[in-house]
Amino acid sequence: MLERTHAPPAARPGALLLRERAEAALRDAAPALLAYAAVRLTGLLLLTVPAVATGRDVLGLLSRRWDAVWYTRIAEHGYGFEIATPDGVHSNLAFFPLLPALERVLAALTPFEAATSGLLAGWLASLAAAWGIYAVGARLRGPATGVVLAALWGAYPTGFVQSMAYTETLFTAFAAWSLYAVLTGRWPAAGALAVLAGLTRPTAAALVAAVVVPAGVALVRDWRAGIPPAVLLRLHRPMLLGLLLAPLGWLSYVLYVAARRDDLLAYFAVQEAWGNGFDGGRALAGFAAETLRSNTLAGLGLCAALTLVFWLLRLCVRQRQPLPLLVYSFAVVAVSLAGSGYFGSRPRLMMPAFPLLLPAAVVVARQQPARAALICAVAAVASGVYGAVTLLGPGPP
Fold first, then answer.
1. Among 214, 293, 322, 362, which residue has the fewest nearby CB atoms (within 10 Å)?
2. Taking a C-beta distance cutoff of 8 angstroms, is the pair 161, 46 a contact?
3. Which among 295, 331, 296, 329 is positioned nearest to 313, based on CA atoms?
4. How far apart are CA 71 and CA 110, in angstroms?
5. What phi and psi, each to the nearest 5 degrees, are found at residue 352?
């Protein structure tokens, strides 16, 4: 009698295997995405109730206010618009192109106008950002910390911007996944994501540093270990590719503005006209001193907030966060605080520095689940109240 033989199972097609991995990753991240969505929905609810009661347009508050208006105008009419003010000429060349490009594409593919398309892009990007933040936190400190980190980022004091047609969520999505790619050794992906971040907002300079500095440290370490340059280049070819790619997005837009204005430093002149020069923090120090003189309580609050930021940076160092995260957080804070622009926007500018929240996320994740959920809920309500007050008033963008 012939024995029945079994052929080995056929290998899964690459596309099917990739799909299975993506589905598994999404299942792992689902608690974080749900927690983040719950935080942001809390904020939207706390905004909607008083907005409706006072006859305000909620979608208009989220998609047609402050910088969102500039992005929509770029999407609809392109670059070249300027406004003359007593402080100088404000050009829309100060705004990077990726969000307006997405608004234009979505407006062409959907029934929505550009402003609403920007809102849709921001909401989708916020989920991608929460997923990336979870991935970084879970890799470093476990899934529970990843979930809490995503929730706390959603409850950031200026978290209401995450629900607006702004670039913060889009940039943070690229940044989080780029940092995750660096942590997992996927250097070309890290560089490609940094390119996209560099087309989103100027803070991408911090992400470029977070890719370039660790790569440079690794190359110098191996070179000092005596590895011949030819071997070094061959061994680290993916790392070199990521290193070379990372600055191209940011640099390409700066060069575009230079070509448009026929001035190599035109982008920096455009930013200076908006009052966004780099002065090493002198303007911030002067603003803090003036605030203390004119309103002692507000000045003390500002000093306490700045002290908190530096304390969080210190905790990140003591926590021994990986070098890419430390470089990124320090650079985002430096870019946000060392300029001479509008000071009301500084907390929003620092929001993409999600690793600052990792020490707190570790502590909260160690609590009993009910207590951890309560802490996140309280943070969500506080963030939502602040967001409602800001959006319904003339507060900082």
1. 293
2. no
3. 329
4. 18
5. -65, -15
With a cut of 90, say whether residue 279 has pLDDT above it.
Answer: no
CB contact burial 93-118 (16+ within 10 A = b; e otherwise) = bbbbbbbbebbbebbeeeeeebbbbb
Contact between 172 and 352 under an 8 Å Cβ cutoff? The reply is: yes
Under 8 Å between Cβ of 65 and 397: yes
Other beta carbons within 10 Å of 328: 31
Task: Write down the residue that tokens 């209401």 correspond to.
Answer: 160
Q: Considering only 140-154, 276-290, 349-363, which range has the smallest mean pLDDT? A: 276-290
Q: Can you tell me the distance from the alpha carbon of 347 to that of 392, in angstroms, rounded to the nearest whole number?
A: 18
> How many helices and strands, by DSSP H and E, does the chain display?
19, 2
| Amino acid at site 140 | L
The DSSP bridge partners found for residue 84 are: 89
In angstroms, rounded to a whole number, what is the distance separating the alpha carbons of residues 152 and 356? 11
Residues 363, 366: Cα–Cα separation, whole Å: 5
| Whole-model pTM over 0.70 | yes
Give pLDDT tens digits for 1-31: 344 444 455 445 667 777 778 788 888 999 9
pLDDT of residue 13: 65
Question: Quick one: which of 157, 216, 192 has its CA closest to 390?
Answer: 157
